[in-house]
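Title: Comparing notes on inverse folding

I've been comparing how different people in this forum approach sequence design from structure. To keep things fair, I'm posting one structure and asking everyone to reply with a full sequence. Here's the target:
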């Protein structure tokens, strides 16, 4: 089917988003450069942020920084620098691009936010291996570099059910972090603050879930590609009022689009699921190709990763342990498959694109027969594309374009 050139529809809330993110980065820079009092913690993207906030840490997320390196394609300059000190090209390219940028003393933050010279210096690093072991190695690297404590949680992995025993284990690990957090922050643990950050995170998560859910409408008011931009506050500012205020604004705008039947993709004909990591350096090209083919990517495992339904301030430790242990990436293949199947129904999806991301086996779900099973039993057409989140040497643009075109033709024939 012929690809058309279509104009992207801008989301008005984007200006507000830019301001929210700028405030976040500038505030952390002021602390890091000693202009304001405060302490900085680095945290993994699905790490124990709420506990850190209970000690008034400002939180920096290296994965967010890495996605900026990917989106700006600077990652390609930095990955070899990390490779040269022994971090393999086969491990997570978020890790290698971030470490490479650190070694070269460069950051895209400087260009996006004039006056910021570097990522904020950490006082402590906190990880959760619920997503992969790479985050532990990544944070240990910085722990050695900066000479600051590294604390972490290693929950049970690949779970079918999350049992009481699993929760007890993770709660004990969370509580074991407290003495170090007290020492570094100079503050006593305050359960009231902790409950408040859990409450705010739950609200953020609910709002984020609702805005993502609006894409279930036909036509969809926004796309996965919009979601990768607007997820910034859900990742970096969950547990704050600013994130929640932002999602109320975005939600109102998208609801208005739904009410007026405004489609993100003009003449939407196909509705797709994106499974796996984004290809950060090719978001625009992919978004334009899909739009041109009248295909809207309406749902993704990736954007949904920041919906934590379990948060409950009346049981802050237990609910936080539950929320971060039951996430998709930490589950058994059977649970993941059912989850995808349910979303395919809910979002009225015509086909699934699986991104086999070379350096992130953890967030790649096409390697154990899932696309074949989904094609056979519920009969959902699937396409597997090879690529990577940040390392564009693993991605062939031409091949991917051709495969996507052929896939959409296949969907057209089924209509
Ligand atoms: S989940 Fe994948 S992309 Fe994320 S830190 Fe781990 S290996 Fe890297």
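Reply #1:
Here's my take.
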């Amino acid at each position: 089917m012929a690809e058309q050139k279509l104009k992207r529809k801008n989301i008005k809330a984007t200006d507000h988003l830019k301001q929210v993110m700028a405030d976040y980065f500038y505030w952390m820079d002021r602390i890091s450069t000693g202009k304001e009092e405060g302490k900085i913690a680095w945290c993994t993207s699905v790490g124990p942020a709420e506990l850190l906030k209970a000690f008034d840490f400002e939180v920096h997320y290296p994965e967010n920084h890495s996605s900026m390196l990917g989106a700006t394609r600077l990652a390609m300059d930095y990955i070899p620098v990390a490779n040269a000190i022994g971090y393999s090209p086969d491990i997570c390219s978020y890790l290698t691009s971030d470490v490479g940028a650190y070694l070269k003393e460069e950051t895209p933050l400087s260009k996006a936010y004039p006056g910021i010279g570097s990522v904020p210096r950490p006082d402590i690093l906190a990880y959760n291996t619920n997503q992969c072991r790479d985050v532990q190695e990544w944070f240990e690297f910085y722990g050695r570099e900066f000479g600051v404590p590294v604390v972490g949680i290693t929950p049970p992995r690949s779970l079918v059910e999350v049992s009481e025993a699993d929760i007890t284990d993770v709660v004990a690990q969370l509580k074991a972090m407290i003495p170090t957090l007290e020492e570094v922050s100079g503050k006593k643990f305050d359960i009231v603050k902790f409950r408040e950050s859990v409450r705010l995170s739950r609200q953020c998560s609910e709002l984020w879930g609702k805005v993502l859910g609006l894409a279930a409408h036909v036509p969809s008011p926004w796309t996965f590609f919009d979601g990768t931009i607007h997820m910034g506050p859900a990742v970096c500012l969950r547990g704050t009022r600013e994130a929640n205020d932002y999602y109320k604004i975005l939600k109102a705008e998208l609801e208005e689009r739904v009410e007026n039947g405004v489609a993100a993709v003009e003449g939407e004909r196909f509705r797709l699921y994106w499974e796996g990591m984004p290809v950060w350096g090719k978001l625009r090209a992919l978004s334009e190709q899909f739009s041109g083919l009248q295909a809207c990517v309406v749902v993704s495992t990736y954007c949904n990763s920041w919906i934590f339904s379990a948060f409950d301030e009346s049981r802050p430790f237990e609910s936080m342990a539950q929320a971060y242990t039951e996430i998709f990436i930490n589950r058994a293949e059977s649970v993941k498959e059912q989850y995808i199947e349910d979303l395919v129904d809910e979002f009225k999806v015509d086909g699934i694109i699986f991104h086999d991301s070379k350096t992130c086996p953890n967030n790649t779900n096409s390697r154990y027969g899932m696309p074949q099973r989904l094609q056979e039993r519920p009969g959902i057409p699937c396409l597997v594309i090879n690529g990577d989140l940040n390392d564009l040497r693993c991605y062939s643009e031409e091949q991917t374009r051709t495969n996507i075109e052929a896939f959409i033709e296949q969907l057209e024939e089924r209509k």
